[in-house]
Amino acid sequence: MKKTKVYIDVFYYKTALSGIKTYIEQLVKGFKKYGRKDVEYIFSHDIENLQNKQFFINSKFRLVRWVFQLRYLVWKQIILPIKLLSGSVDILICPDYVAPIFSPCKKIVVIHDNLFWKYPLNYPTLWRNYFIKLIKLGVSNNCELVTTSKYSKNGLKNIFNDKISFIYQSSERVHYNDKINKSKNYLLHIGTFEKRKDILTLVKAFKLFKDNTNSKLKLLLAGSKYINGNNEEYKKIKKYITKYNLFSSILMPGYINKKQVLYYYNNAFAYVFPSIDEGFGIPMIEAMRAKVPVICSDIEIFKEIGNDSVIYFKKQDYNDLYKKLKLISEDYTIIEDYIYKGKKRSNLFNQKNFIKGFEKLY
Length: 362
Hints:
By secondary structure, the chain is of the alpha/beta class. The chain has 2 domains: 4-166, Rossmann fold (3-Layer(aba) Sandwich), CATH 3.40.50; 186-346, Glycogen Phosphorylase B (Rossmann fold, 3-Layer(aba) Sandwich). The chain has 14 helices and 12 strands. The protein has a 6-stranded parallel beta sheet. Strands 9-8-7-10-11-12 form a 6-stranded parallel beta sheet, sandwiched between helices. Helix 7 links the parallel strand 7 and strand 8 (218-222). The protein is globular, with a radius of gyration of 21 Å.
């Protein structure tokens, strides 16, 4: 019996940061582990070989970013269609918003969220207009659209007239590790320094926490400081830290690798997620898997993913966040309760469910 050929385009993995990088990684590992036997999965690149050859799109140099965009365009619109045609591929999966305009096979394209449309000022105008045009051209025919949550699906309905499915993604790169010596002496946030992450609210809440408690906890903010060449948000946060002399209490190590991610999660006292908008929220799942309690803003997507397994504070309210930080620092029984509920909740977002969601579309 002839197998269905499914081709997964992972070219973007070499430059992806945070969410999409984890998504591609989980997709590849999940297909290899749980993929159907009557399907032949073909991967455009070996992601293991790409891990140490990263050419970051978030470089502070515009020329570097546009060189990558040129390479990306040539790959998507010329090289990839040739590979699909010569390999007699039945289905193409593009996990990075963009698909080739011409494709000899059916396409499944992942549109992670509606943030490019919702927050136009967060992106360089020329690049945003170009990228949105590229997205729309790629999903114009013979295409199935997939997103990451009910919340994202609702946000994309008015942009795309096609049917959009949602498939909850997995994040199994983080786990609880008994062998790691756990200090548990800091609050953690991992993510890029961009406006919608609202890291400044976290920093302000942490200052109140330090001023009004005897806690020795520090705050660790890990993630890329440049977003599409812009680091205005990072500068704003650094200015606040300088003004109140918080350098000894707030650590900013920049972009971190997979080993560091695992270590930081396993050593965190709590994970704090103050975003004002997200398409999904992978760090929430990762913290739960590492047995770390989560405090997050009360936005719709976090309630969808976290349910009753996380502690919520009022969005953009640093006084309310301070109260939640104080609460968990003074009552360990609350932490134990949320660790238990979080670990149980995280089990729903596993690789097997993730992959079976895609295979239903075939």
